[in-house]
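Below is a filled-in request sheet from our internal design queue. Each sheet records the structural input a requester submitted and the sequence that came back. We keep these sheets so that new team members can see what a complete request looks like end to end.

REQUESTER: design group, bay 2
PRIORITY: normal
MODE: inverse folding
CHAIN LENGTH: 99
BACKBONE (tokenized):
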């Protein structure tokens, strides 16, 4: 049986990351930012996601590790929403069949 609480937690983390980016844009849209400030703003949502998924690297669960690897491959080619959705689906499917 799939763990729906995990699915909901991942979905909420994705929404939180998106809200962080949108809020920063709305608060700073009328200001001129330095290149360094722009770099920080662009990288912070990725850092938030990494903080949430890092514990799965140490879980030892093969389904989680395979899902992380597949999500990494997707992340190198596609945007954040596609990566998050595919990562959730990889984890869901692999946990169902391997878990």
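RETURNED SEQUENCE:
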């Amino acid at each position: 049986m799939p763990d729906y609480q995990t699915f909901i937690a991942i979905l909420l983390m994705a929404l939180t990351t998106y809200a962080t980016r949108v809020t920063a844009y709305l608060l700073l849209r009328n200001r001129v930012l330095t290149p360094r400030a722009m770099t920080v703003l662009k990288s912070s949502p990725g850092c938030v996601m990494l903080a949430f998924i890092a514990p799965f690297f140490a879980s030892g669960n093969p389904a989680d590790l395979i899902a992380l690897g597949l999500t990494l491959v997707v992340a190198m080619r596609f945007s954040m929403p596609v990566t998050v959705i595919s990562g959730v689906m990889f984890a869901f499917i692999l946990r169902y069949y391997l878990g």
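SHEET NOTES:
- Helices lie at 4-28, 35-57, 62-75, 80-98.
- The chain has four helices and no strands.
FILED BY: M.R.
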